[in-house]
Amino acid sequence: IMFRDFRLKFLGSNITLKEMVLVTAMTVLLSFSAFYVFSSRYEFSVPRFKGSCIDIPWNFAIVDTWNRRVARDDLIVFKSRYMFTRKDGLNVAKYIRALPLDEASVKADGSVYVNQKKKAQGLIQSVLYKKEPEYFVRSEILDFDKYWGLGTAYNSVDSRYWGNLDESQIVGHFIRIL
Q1: Dihedrals φ, ψ of 124, to 5°?
Q2: SS (H, E, C) the chain
Q3: Is the dihedral of CA 101, 145, 54, 176 positive or negative?
Q4: Residues of the chain with pLDDT under 70
Q5: Which of 30, 66, 131, 174 sits most deeply, having the most CB atoms within 10 A of its CB?
């Protein structure tokens, strides 16, 4: 295509066809670059099982994969490992209730404590594991790279059943959108 030096009326100004093609090309390049940068940091997430382990009032979220710093009560996405209800490598979201060097305990009555403060109640999912609730009773001080994730629903499958999260499992922060 041969570019001619004739003027086009575009958004109230006169520009040449060559200028219009250049602006369009730059806009497309900028859009693709912005999408690439966004998608290298964020993953889209649509909760599949609304209310199963975390009572969620939203339908859409993103995961910030660049932010792997963890603070107490953050909603974190991690790769499943050794969970009875999920195969290894799937993204799972839980609230981090215990940090490295915290004491996490599951009592005989099903109470879950972090640093002697009650965080959850019940061992209803022990039937999934075909174990008596007493099997899950324990108290431990978490290592330097370990975390405890708990759901908010009464039937949550979480650290009280499958143990600690390793820092290497963390994908990023769960950010609620809608």
Answers
A1: -60, -30
A2: CCCCCCEEEECCEEEEHHHHHHHHHHHHHHHHHHHHHHHHHEEEECCCCCCCCCCCCCCCEEEECCCCCCCCCCEEEEECCCCCCCCCCCEEEEEEEECCCCEEEECCCCEEEECCEEEEECCHHHHCCCCCHHHHCEEEECCCCEEEEECCCCCCCCHHHHCCEEHHHEEEEEEECC
A3: positive
A4: 1-14, 46-59, 178
A5: 174
pLDDT score for 87: 84
In this prediction, residue 134 carries a pLDDT of 92
- The whole-angstrom distance between residue 166's C-alpha and the CA centroid of its chain comes to 15
For the whole model, what pTM was predicted?
0.77
Find out whether 123 and 131 touch, Cβ atoms under 8 Å: no
Residue with token string 């908010």: 152
Please give the pLDDT value at position 45.
72
pLDDT of residue 72: 95
Calpha distance 32→27 (Å, rounded): 9
Q: Quick: pLDDT tens for 38-67.
A: 888 888 776 555 445 666 666 677 889 999
Contact 147, 169 (CB under 8 A): no
